[in-house]
Write a structure and sequence with these properties.
Elements lengths: L1 H16 L4 H8 L2 H13 L8 H13 L8 H9 L6 H14 L6 H8 L7 H14 L1 H7 L5 H11 L5 H16 L11 H4 L7 E2 L14 H4 L16 E4 L5 E4 L3 H11 L4 E4 L9 H16 L3 E6 L9 H13 L6 E4 L4 H13 L3 E4 L3 H9 L11 H12 L9 E4 L14 E5 L13 E3 L1 H11 L4 E5 L6 H10 L6 E5 L11 H9 L14 H7 L3 H11 L7 E2 L2 H15 L2 E2 L1 E2 L2 E6 L8 E6 L12 E6 L2 E5 L19 E4 L4 E9 L6 E8 L10 E2 L2 E2 L8 E8 L24 E9 L11 E4 L3 E5 L9 E7 L20
Helix pairs in contact: 1-2, 3-4, 8-10, 8-11, 10-11, 15-24, 20-21, 24-25
Length: about 800
């Protein structure tokens, strides 16, 4: 034991000698693999007597990132580092990539040096020249957009031409050039740009429509088990992220062995995840992916998933939304391990905020929202940033006791206002709101922010895997900075691409707008891709989960999934589960002149296309009488070779019944509108017409069939990506996205259908019974159309196949 402690002490001294901070050195010795690697690297580099911090940081990266298949070449790389031929993280990343591809094979030194920019000296003058050229090329755009110009793009252009340039010098010169060209910021420059409002629905390339049926390749391991990419809880001692500060220091965030051991003792080594929706609206299909990731990982590993309401904003949250979320999670097939609220931890969060102040990592600020914004843009510290700790503690207590007006003070985290990551700009931890809380009541008048509460509650609940979408990736630095500052357990964080689907909006702000302003009929309008809307439309949770699983848990951002892909999974499910029946949407009266007026036959119709004749449950009875109804679009006055409907003198087959031949047409007074048609039926079924029509008959003489209402839904937006339209997105709403057919006829067996029952209306599509149904008045929603049975060339052969009514 004494020898082990002595070795650990020597290792720490060795690691400190190359410029590592004390915490990183202590964390490193708790990881035997990294300790061994780093010790070997230091000896190979011959810097056991120490080196500067820049070189030490590069050596640490080699110890943690260098590929095992190329160890034979590591001494060469270390020589280049200690002689400052490789001196930047960008060069090192290029070198590691080079050796990853090379492996143990021989390589040409000149190719290695070229790949890593060895010997290339980029002077400030070179950078200044490149910046000047980029500004000349983009001058018109910069003058138009002024300080709304995407500086990141300008930075990228410079780095593309000078990949080995010092990024700090590049950034400094770009900022100077912007000021030189534009001068001081104006009030208009500080207005929030439209594109930022649309950031969550940024323009994206639309995934090409694929054929409905295509060859299925051999599934990959990740397709078979999409959760295989995630590490086990006991591996949670690795460096999670590196936070680069503006003073050149680097914070390497990881758990100590003691912290991991304590965590594993509490969790029993199980996976703990959380699904953390904010209860400020209804869940949409993007949340279905989040549930699949969070609940799915816990289920696959035999672990636990919390349903945690992120209820830090009392003004936006409603009991209605809380109830909906719990109900829809269960409907989706997921069972929470426990239901919690961020507000359950308000006292713990407050106590930790006090501790954060005591440690010098937070301060009470009196800047207004506009002042905070201005200071962040200028990377300036708040004038109250360095106030005494005791003063901030006193003021924070007064905030809690309601002694300070709303908007007059906030608690801010003391992070790094000069960082390249805007999510380190002293984020707000607490703000004053004299608003009762839906769950916590009126106990509190200060509420924690998402950035403060989210990571802290993750730690308090011993979450092993904190999983979220890619727009939160830049918040990772703040997430780990806070947990590090409070010496709290750190979960493993991983971001995946958000789910974007064509012809809709996914932003809760936009969804709330079109709901509250009656562009749609509530949060569960079947045209919306809210989960409640999809369910009301007739989509099953099974189909939604199959769709999400098919997309996978990827980090490839920027693509948009075509809605036809979702429809494919809906059809796949309904084809197996929805019984067949017959409904005529736009009835045309057909009189069978050679059938007695009082005769009614009971015929067998199939509920399932592959039904066996000896299975009575697979059939239902339909009446066949002198008067039947077909679709108006299934009759034409002029026949054609490629038309399979009914026409004068032509025969068709009534499905499950008999062939009929048109013998006469009765027109209305305008001498154009077809009022009814007369036909003769073939009781012997000797004729074999090609066309097959669905139909509904009178059950007795003069008694019309059951009348039902059918709602036909199309895409809510005409454009595949309404977000591209910025402020004009509302004008893109499809005025024909909902068509109500009030006089449809249905077979009598449908009279007992219940809300939520799903059917395939033959030749029309899949439909579900809507909640607006009443006794004697059934309402059906079209879930999805059928596939086109006539192929692309005859796409509109039968208008009903595509519901073009």
């Amino acid at each position: 034991m004494v020898l082990k402690e002595e070795n650990s002490k020597k290792s720490i001294e060795l690691f400190l000698s190359i410029g590592l901070d004390e915490r990183t050195a202590n964390n490193t010795i708790n990881n035997n693999k990294v300790t061994s690697n780093l010790t070997a690297v230091i000896h190979e580099a011959d810097v056991t007597d120490g080196c500067d911090r820049t070189t030490g940081n590069l050596l640490y990266s080699v110890a943690t990132k260098y590929p095992a298949n190329a160890l034979v070449h590591r001494p060469i790389l270390l020589k280049y580092i200690v002689t400052s031929k490789i001196k930047t993280p960008a060069q090192l990343e290029a070198a590691i990539s080079f050796f990853t591809n090379t492996g143990a094979e021989d390589f040409k030194l000149n190719e290695f040096e070229e790949a890593c920019g060895v010997g290339i000296e980029v002077s400030p003058e070179d950078i200044e020249k490149a910046v000047k050229e980029i500004f000349e090329e983009n001058k018109k755009t910069i003058l138009e957009q002024r300080y709304r110009t995407n500086v990141g793009e300008l930075f990228g252009h410079v780095r593309k031409s000078l990949p080995w340039a010092d990024p700090k010098i590049v950034k400094k010169l770009i900022d100077e050039k912007m000021f030189e060209l534009l001068g001081e910021r104006t009030a208009a420059d500080n207005e929030k740009p439209t594109k930022k409002k649309e950031k969550k629905e940024k323009p994206a390339k639309v995934e090409e429509k694929k054929a409905a049926v295509e060859a299925t390749p051999e599934p990959s391991e990740e397709e078979l088990n999409p959760y295989s990419i995630f590490p086990q809880p006991e591996q949670n001692f690795m460096v999670h992220t590196e936070v680069f500060f503006s003073d050149g220091s680097v914070l390497r965030c990881s758990n100590t062995k003691e912290v991991v051991d304590k965590h594993l003792k509490v969790t029993g080594g199980k996976v703990y995840t959380r699904f953390p929706p904010e209860p400020n609206g209804y869940l949409h299909i993007g949340h279905a992916k989040a549930m699949f990731v969070d609940f799915g990982l816990a289920k696959e590993r035999g672990g636990c998933c919390y349903l945690r309401y992120d209820d830090t904003n009392p003004e936006a949250e409603k009991k209605e939304y809380i109830n909906h979320i719990e109900e829809i999670v269960n409907w989706m097939g997921w069972e929470p391990f426990k239901i919690t609220y961020t507000s359950d931890y308000f006292q713990e969060l407050y106590d930790l905020a006090v501790e954060l102040i005591r440690r010098g990592h937070a301060y009470v600020d009196h800047q207004t929202g506009e002042e905070i914004k201005e200071y962040r843009e200028k990377k300036m510290n708040s004038p109250w940033r360095d106030r005494p700790i005791e003063e901030s503690l006193k003021l924070f207590d007064e905030m809690k006791r309601g002694m300070i007006e709303e908007g007059k003070a906030t608690l801010r985290m003391k992070q790094d206002m000069q960082s390249d990551n805007f999510n380190m700009y002293d984020l707000i931890a607490y703000r004053i709101k004299f608003t009762p809380h839906p769950h916590a009541g009126d106990k509190w008048c200060i509420y924690p922010s998402y950035d403060y509460a989210h990571c802290t509650v993750d730690s308090l609940e011993n979450i092993t895997h904190s999983l979220c979408t890619l727009e939160f990736e830049t918040r990772r630095a703040s997430y780990y900075w806070l947990l590090h500052s409070l010496d709290l357990y750190m979960p493993y964080v991983w971001e995946y691409s958000r789910l974007n689907v064509t012809n809709t909006v996914m932003s809760k702000r936009k969804l709330n707008y079109i709901v509250t302003n009656n562009y749609v009929d509530g949060w569960d309008d079947p045209r919306l891709l809210t989960l409640a809307g999809l369910r009301r439309r007739g989509v099953s949770a099974t189909a939604i989960n199959a769709f999400v699983r098919g997309i996978g848990i990827t980090r490839s951002d920027g693509s948009m999934i075509h809605v036809s892909r979702l429809e494919h999974h809906i059809r796949e499910e309904l084809n197996k589960t929805a019984p067949r029946t017959m409904v005529v949407l736009n009835p045309l009266k057909v009189v069978i002149t050679n059938l007695e007026s009082d005769k009614v036959m009971e015929l067998d119709a199939k509920r399932w296309p592959d039904a066996q004749n000896d299975d009575p449950s697979a059939f239902y009875k339909v009446p066949f009488s002198r008067v039947v109804y077909i679709e108006q679009s299934d009759f034409r006055m002029k026949d054609s070779k490629d038309y399979y409907g009914l026409a004068p003198g032509k025969s068709v087959l009534l499905r499950y019944a008999f062939p009929i031949k048109c013998t006469n047409v009765v027109l209305a007074d305008d001498n154009e509108t077809v009022r009814e048609i007369h036909v003769e039926y073939d009781p012997e079924k000797k004729s074999k017409p090609k066309g097959v029509l669905h139909w509904v008959a009178e059950s007795s003489t003069g008694k019309e069939p059951i009348k039902v209402e059918v709602r036909l839904f199309e895409k809510l937006f005409n454009s595949e990506n309404p977000a591209e339209l910025n402020d004009d997105w509302l004008a893109d709403i499809n005025p024909n996205s909902k068509v109500v057919v009030s006089g449809a006829y249905a077979v009598s067996t449908l009279k007992d259908a219940a809300v939520g029952d799903r059917f395939q209306f033959e030749r029309l599509g899949y439909y579900a019974v809507d909640k607006d149904s009443e006794p004697g008045k059934l309402v059906f929603n079209r879930t999805v159309t059928l596939r086109d049975s006539y192929g692309k060339d005859n796409r509109c052969q039968n208008a009903l196949c595509h519901m073009g009514i």
